[in-house]
Specification:
Layout (H helix, E strand, L loop, with lengths): L28 H38 L7 H8 L1
Helix pairs in contact: 1-2
Length: 82
């Protein structure tokens, strides 16, 4: 037998080899990243809805202010819609 080969010593009690249980504990990093992504999407949707509401109010106000005697001047509002 060569000198550089190390032979492991035998366990005193062979039944102790399989006593340990492999714990599969997740660190929660993936779940945290997923929650942050959903929060970012949620806030983006909220801000987009608020933006659309303000644009609609601005367009309606512009149409109201450009209307004279019940007529709507759509040509002056058309650049706002583009």
């Amino acid at each position: 037998m060569p000198l550089n080969v190390i032979t492991p010593s035998e366990p005193k009690d062979p039944s102790l080899i399989y006593k340990y249980k492999k714990k599969e504990e997740y660190s929660g990093e993936l779940e945290g990243i997923i929650v942050l992504c959903f929060l970012a999407i949620f806030f983006a949707v909220i801000f987009k809805v608020i933006e659309v509401i303000f644009v609609v109010i601005f367009i309606l106000l512009s149409i109201y202010l450009t209307a004279r005697n019940g007529e709507m001047n759509l040509l002056s509002v058309l650049p706002l819609l583009m």
